[in-house]
Amino acid sequence: MPTILVLNGPNLNLLGLRQPEIYGHATLADVEALCQRTARGAGLAADCRQTNHEGVMIDWIHAARGTASGILINPGGWSHTSVALLDALNAYEAPVVEVHISNIHRREAFRHHSHISARAEAVIAGCGVQGYALGLLHLAERLGAAGA
Ligand code: CA2
């Protein structure tokens, strides 16, 4: 069964605990449970991780080479700042999908550009946490997983 690495970047551990008017009421644990359920139903396995440390995220992406069949990533604030994260994803050979809970294009101008979008084959923004499920379903279809 193909494994998808589901990566959440900085501050996403606070989901559901602060700013529900922007990010909703679901916690990170809820999001990870949604990913596990969706992945299983689509014939995938999800390996869900969150970190507030950019180097840790980059190490996980390096380690995904040859082990994960795809990456679903919410890079959080690093979307708008990190060429290093883009470089790590460019060194990864399999499909990458970028997800944002909020619609970054309806927010402050500094959120309108994501360095990661140049690498992602799909970008989902503004669908709330359902965007994670949509991203996984896209990857299942793309990888020809058994449940897709
Ligand atoms: O909409 C998204 O998913 C974002 O990636 C979330 C990032 C933000 O910097 C991006 O522009 C858009 C922020 C994640 C912080 O999450 C929090 C959740 C609850 C309370 C505080 C922060």
Topology:
Layout: E1 3-8, H1 20-23, H2 28-41, E2 45-50, H3 54-64, E3 70-74, H4 83-90, E4 96-100, E5 122-125, H5 130-143
Parallel strand pairs: 1-2, 1-3, 3-4, 4-5
The protein binds ligand CA2.
Ligand CA2 binds next to loops.
Can you describe what's shown?
- The protein is of the alpha/beta class and 148 residues long.
- It has a single domain (3-143), classed as Rossmann fold (3-Layer(aba) Sandwich), CATH 3.40.50.
- The protein is built from 5 helices and 5 strands; from the N terminus they run E-H-H-E-H-E-H-E-E-H.
- The chain has helices spanning 20-23, 28-41, 54-64, 83-90, 130-143, and strands at 3-8, 45-50, 70-74, 96-100, 122-125.
- It has a 5-stranded parallel β-sheet with strand order 2-1-3-4-5, sandwiched between helices.
- Strand 3 (70-74), helix 4 and strand 4 (96-100) form a beta-alpha-beta unit.
- It is globular, with a radius of gyration of 14 Å.
- The structure holds ligand CA2.
What's the SSE pattern? EHHEHEHEEH
Q: Structural class, from secondary structure content?
A: alpha/beta
User: Which spans have pLDDT < 50 for at least 5 consecutive residues?
Assistant: none
Mind telling me which CATH architecture this is?
Answer: 3-Layer(aba) Sandwich
Determine and state the CATH class.
Alpha Beta
Determine Rg (CA atoms, Å).
14 Å
Mind telling me the CATH superfamily name?
Dehydroquinase, class II
Overall strand count:
5
Oligomeric state: single chain
Write down the CATH topology. Rossmann fold
How large is the share of residues in beta strands?
15-25%
Mean pLDDT: 97
Integer tally of domains? 1
Describe the strand arrangement of the main beta sheet, using strand numbers: 2-1-3-4-5
Number of helices: 5
The main β sheet shows up as: 5 strands, parallel
Helix content: 25-40%
Bound compounds, each kind once, are: ligand CA2
Please give the alpha-carbon distance between the first and last residues: 12 Å
Shape: globular
